[in-house]
Amino acid sequence: MSNGANSAKKFDFIAIGRACIDLNAAEYNRPMEETMTFVKYVGGSPANIAIGGARLGLKAGFIGKIADDQHGRFIEKYMSDAGIDTSQLVVDQEGHKTGLAFTEIKSPEECSILMYRDDVADLYLRTDEVDEEYIQQAGMLLVSGTALAQSPSREAVLKAVQLAKRNGVKIVFELDYRPYTWKNKEETAVYYSIVAEQADIVIGTRDEYDVMENSEGGSNDNTISYLFGHRPEIIVIKHGVEGSYAYTKSGEVFRAQAYKTKVLKTFGAGDSYASAFLYALITGKDIGTALKYGSASASIVVSKHSSSEAMPTVEEIEELISNQPVIHS
Ligand SMILES: Nc1ncnc2c1ncn2[C@@H]1O[C@H](COP(=O)(O)OP(=O)(O)O)[C@@H](O)[C@H]1O
Ligand SMILES: O=C(O)C[C@@H](O)[C@H](O)C(=O)COP(=O)(O)O
User: Fold this and answer.
1) 73 located within any domain
2) Which residues are paired to 168 by β-bridges?
3) What three-state secondary structure class fits 196?
4) Does the N-terminal or the C-terminal CB of the chain have fewer CB atoms within 10 Å?
5) Ligand 2 neighbourhood includes 146 CB (under 6 angstroms)
C-alpha cells in the first residue's frame, strides 16, 4: 500500500478525538494522596499524537471540541503554537468541561491515571461539526477509540470514517482504550470492531485487541486473521516493554524491541509510539524502520515528565536508534 505520504495534500494527517489536560505529579515515588503539586500539560491521546507528529515536522490538523474556559484556551494556544491546524477545534457552547487526567507516579513501574471526564466537551462533538472538505485535505485520518465511547462524538467519528473512505483518505485506528469512558466492554467491542474493520492501519496493545475481541488472552494470529478478512493492511500490536509487532496483509511480520532507558513513568509510551510510527510511514520508510521509530520515541517519552511536551525530534529518535541498546526479551 502507499502509506499516506502525499505532498499534494495540505495535511499529512488529521487526528480526531479529545484534546484535554494532563496534571502530572511533580513529586515522584509517592501515592497521589501524598502528592501536593502537579504540572499542567496538554493531554489526550489524539492530541498527544498530533503534537508528536508536528514535532517531527508533519503537517497535522485536529478535529475536536474544547471547553469555553481557561483550559480550553490553553489547549488551543498550545496546539496552534505547536504548528497544528486548530481551525476544526470547535469551542463548546453548552457549558461542558475540559477532561482532566491526574497522574500518579509511585515508581517507574507503578503509575496510574485518575481521570475527570464527566460531561467533557470532547464527547459532545457533533456530526455537523465534521467537515468533508477538511478531511479531503488529509493523507490520513487518525481515529482515537475513546471518541467512540459516547454519542454524539461516536456518530461524529463514524461520519469522519465514512468521509475518509469516500475521499481515499487512509484511516488509522488507535484503539486507545480508556475503560472509564465506556459503559461496558461489550459495547466497546462492538464499536471497536466496526471501525477496525474499516481502517487501513490499526494500532493497539495486546490488551486493547482483547477488548475489541471481547475476550481475554487472545493471540496475535487470531487477531490478524480476523482483521485481514476486512480492510486493514497493517496491524500493529504492542506488548509493552517486550516490544511490538507489525503484520501486513501480504503476510510479512516485523518485530521491534523496546530500547533501554531510565523510565520515569510509563504513560505517554503509546502516543509517542504512534506519532513516530506514522511519521516514518508518511516519510516513506519501511515498516520495520517505522516500528523502530515508534519504540525509540516511546523510550524517550517514558524517561521524561510529560507526554505531549516530551515528544522528541527526528534527530533525537535517530540518535537513539543508532546508539541505544534494545531490551532483549
Ligand atoms: N519500560 C519501557 N522501556 C522502554 N520502552 C518502553 C517501555 N514500556 C513501553 N515501551 C515502548 O513503548 C511502546 C508502547 O508501549 P505499550 O505499553 O505497549 O503501549 P501503551 O502505552 O499504549 O499501553 C512499546 O512497544 C515499547 O517500545
Ligand atoms: O489520553 C489521555 O487522556 C491521557 C494522556 O494525555 C496521558 O498522557 C496518557 O495516559 C498517555 O498515555 P499513552 O496513551 O500510554 O501514551
Assistant:
1) yes
2) none
3) helix
4) C
5) no
Q: If you take atom 4 of ligand 2, which residue's CA is the nearest one? A: 44
In a domain, 110, yes or no: no
CA distances (Å), 277 to each of 52, 140, 178, 246, 253, in order?
Answer: 10, 13, 21, 11, 15
Query: Model-level pTM?
Result: 0.97
pLDDT at residue 109 in the model: 87
**Quick one: DSSP state of residue 302?**
T
- Which grid coordinates are listed for 131? 467537515
Whether residue 62 is contained in a domain is answered as: yes
Task: Take residue 150 and report the three cell numbers written for it.
Answer: 459516547
pLDDT, tens digit (0-9, with 9 covering 90-100), for 39-61: 999 999 999 999 999 999 999 99
Residue with cell 474556559: 69
Q: Which atom of ligand 2 is nearest to the CA of 307?
A: 8
Indicate whether residue 269 lines ligand 2 (CB < 6 A).
Answer: yes
Domain range spanning residue 140?
11-18+45-96+118-323
Q: What is the CATH number of the domain that holds 301?
A: 3.40.1190.20
ipTM score above 0.90: yes
Compute the distance between CA of residue 297 and CA of residue 282 in angstroms, rounded to an integer.
16
78 falls within a domain: yes
Q: Which long-range contacts (CB under 8 A, 24 or more apart) does 214-219 make?
A: 214/185, 214/186, 214/189
pLDDT in tens, 277-311: 999 999 999 999 999 999 999 999 999 999 999 99
Q: Which atom of ligand 2 is nearest to the CA of 266?
A: 15
- The tally of domains found in the chain comes to 1
Straight-line distance from the first to the last Cα atom of the chain, in angstroms, rounded to the nearest whole number:
31
Q: How far is the CA of 146 from the centre of ligand 2 (A)?
A: 11
Ligand 2 neighbour 327 (Cβ under 6 A) = no
